[in-house]
Amino acid sequence: MAKITYIDSEGTERVVEAQNGETVMEAAIKNSIPGIDADCGGACACATCHVYVDQAFMDKVGEQEEMEKSMLDFAENVQENSRLSCQITVSEDLDGLKVTTPESQH
Questions:
Q1: Sequence-ordered alpha helix ranges (H) in the chain
Q2: Where are the beta strands (DSSP E) in 60-96?
Q3: What is the C-alpha to C-alpha distance for residues 30 and 70, in angstroms, rounded to an integer?
Q4: Residues 17, 3: contact at Cβ < 8 Å?
């Protein structure tokens, strides 16, 4: 398990415990985290689970694959630390991860 902190664009933090093997998006949906809609259900076919990953965890979340890069082209306010939360798999290494949802997903 890993504790993940979801921060909305207004700064409200919500901490959840996520199971190893599930995605950051799945943990958000299970815990009704606002700002992560996951319209495609985690198929990497939309950008409604776009998050900004805390810089301290960028090396731990892995690299973007081509499909994710393509989907981020449709997201608003993409930054260097932008990721689709459906593409980040929870592991013990991600304990303490912080992700922030963009204002456009508020």
A1: 24-30, 66-72
A2: 82-84
A3: 26
A4: yes
Q: Is 2 left (phi over 0), alpha (psi -120 to 50) or beta?
A: beta
Output the CA–CA distances (angstroms, integers) from residue 37 to 27, 70, 85, 90, in the order listed: 12, 18, 11, 18
Q: Pick from 79, 94, 104, 99: which is nearest to 28 by CA?
A: 99
What mean pLDDT, rounded, does the chain reach?
95
Phi and psi at residue 22, to the nearest 5°:
-85, 170
Which CATH number is 2-105 given? 3.10.20.30
**What is the model's pLDDT at position 105?**
82
Confidence of residue 67 (pLDDT cuts 50, 70, 90): very high
* Both structure tokens of 35: 């700002």
Domain boundaries, the chain: 2-105
pLDDT (tens digit per residue) in 17-59: 999 999 999 999 999 999 999 999 999 999 999 999 999 999 9
The pTM of the full predicted model, rounded to 2 decimals, is: 0.94
